[in-house]
Amino acid sequence: MSARWSRLLRGVVLLAVLSLLFLGGWLLVQRKHRALAEAPRQGMAPTPVHVVDVRRGHLAESLTYLAACEPIQKSDMAARITASVLEVACDEGSIVKKNQVLVRLDDREIREGIAEVRADEERTDADLSGNEAIRASLVKSVAYWKREAARHRALANDGDIPSSEAEATEEKASDYGGRLQAAKEKSHSLTHQLQALAARKKKLEIQLSYCSIRSPYDGWIVRRLVDPGDLASPGKILLQIEDRSSLRLAFAVPQQDVARMRQGLDVKFRVGDQERKTRLTRLYPSLGVDRTVRVECVLAKADAQGLVSGSFVPVTVVLRESEGVVLVPQIAVMDSPAGKKGVFVVRGDKLALVAVTLLGREGQMVAVDGLDPGSRIVVSTFLGWARLASGMTVEPIR
Length: 398
Hints:
- The chain is 35% helix and 37% strand.
- The protein is an alpha+beta fold.
- It folds into three domains: 47-60 and 322-397, conserved putative lor/sdh protein from methanococcus maripaludis s2 fold; 65-73 and 245-321, Efflux pump adaptor protein, beta barrel domain (Elongation Factor Tu (Ef-tu), domain 3, Beta Barrel), CATH 2.40.30.170; 107-210.
- The longest helix has 51 residues, at 108-158.
- The radius of gyration is 51 Å and the shape is elongated.
């Protein structure tokens, strides 16, 4: 009997606990309902938005690129002939002058060849002089024997001398004529030999000049790749030299921007805390394999101060400048339902979506058409742009 009452008592206690838990949950739900009922309904309170006033100003439409600072000239010095290196008269970092000898090559074989040619020229010239003297003498002899042959023939015709004597004189005149022709041909051949020797000597002298590799301009030696005893050959770079009398900024323009580029455009860049300006000097005529066009800006000496060859510099190409245009922050411009660009304008405490036309951009500002100066436009909102709509009540915050 006691066990039965004990089980009954436990059941009553459990039921009481469950009832209390249910009652507590119901009271919590009711309190939450009251709180929600007392809360203001959505849309009743103004939506806070940050606004700015539209103004007129100056706009420079531009594009920004990363340019490399380069020397105005850069040359890879190589030999034009194959020869041993005798001397290297400079080192990396050396300042050199135009026409200064930088590398000397072994020229002994070439000098020996020139000496041989000169000796051949002297012998040939002597042979030509002697042959010309003989030719001059033969010219006189031929003239004499021709006169004698004509005289003897006339005498033979008159019967004063035998015909055989006239024929002998004619043969002698013919013999001297043959000697004269041979002398003329020999002089012609010797003249051609002298011309060939002169051409060979000139070629050797040019090769001799190649043995002294000279600087093409005033500059700096930035790299030395040769030492005495090395073998120089065509195409093998010995030295690299730069002309730093002036610098240039070079950068690549993507294909889609090329049509907007032209020579003479202003290009801005910074060196430290100084802003400097130059002009677009050269636009290459064709695209590279990466579908870009190389653009160069040659810097004046003052504008190049503080720049180091090989460094990278951000540059801004000014495409167009406009005065007195309506400027708004780019963040305020969005796509309107009609597919155009638009901005939210605050009129009183109401929003209005106004369509605008973009005229250009500079940094974070854009020039637009369709807004009046002094209009208040929304630049940010607490609830997100998707929650804004024309006619909504807002609380402007500056």
